[in-house]
Amino acid sequence: MSETPSRTPLPATPGQTVGPFFGYALPFEGGEQLVPFGHPQAVRLHGDVLDGHGAPVPDALLEIWQADGNGEVPSAPGSLRRDGWTFTGFGRAAVDHAGHYTFTTVDPGPTEPGRAPFIALTLFGRGITNRLFTRVYLPEDAEALAGDPLLASLPEERRRTLIAQREADGSLRFDLRLQGEGETVFLTYPRHER
């Protein structure tokens, strides 16, 4: 007489630490350039990745996804093999030895009327058991920022950690703080275990 196997769902197992292998396995040539440097709407998104003590994290990897300047979410293939003109809305960049990253992209447009435009950002790093998700909001439209459901759900001082700073040269500065004072707000999504 054989036993019937149990139909009880198995518990999820914890994720393995991410990296440091990704430093040579995941970056790809041109991954940080969503548009070429000479693109008429090119903007630089850059910043530092910092630990809980404010020290640079020298071995993180960042990915971004975003809408184009008109708020259209791209569906064109080709993110890993750039052709020089197709905007795919995806980029990947490793930080340098000082924890600094740079992307060449465009300011995203709002995906819905009245909504605040943002760039979705994911961080991978040594000692992080799963990737971290956050958003980079553009700073200009105060009304749209005030009406954004995610930002409105946060205390005022925490909202600021998701809003980039526009620099004098037009670039966007967005630092990521992994812990401590001024820690960046990180998001969780349904069915995504941290």
UniProtKB/TrEMBL annotation:
PANTHER family: DIOXYGENASE, PUTATIVE (AFU_ORTHOLOGUE AFUA_2G02910)-RELATED (PTHR33711), PROTOCATECHUATE 3,4-DIOXYGENASE ALPHA CHAIN (PTHR33711:SF9). One of its GO terms (molecular function) is protocatechuate 3,4-dioxygenase activity. Transmembrane segments: none annotated. Belongs to the intradiol ring-cleavage dioxygenase family. The lineage of its organism: Bacteria, Bacillati, Actinomycetota, Actinomycetes, Micrococcales. Residues 32-178 form the Intradiol ring-cleavage dioxygenases domain. The gene is pcaG. Its EC number is 1.13.11.3. This is Protocatechuate 3,4-dioxygenase subunit alpha. InterPro entries: Intradiol_dOase_C, Intradiol_dOase_core, Intradiol_RC_Dioxygenase, Protocat_dOase_a. It comes from the Bacteria. Signal peptide: none annotated. CDD domains: 3_4-PCD_alpha (cd03463). Pfam families: Dioxygenase_C (PF00775). The keyword Oxidoreductase applies. Keywords: Dioxygenase, Oxidoreductase.
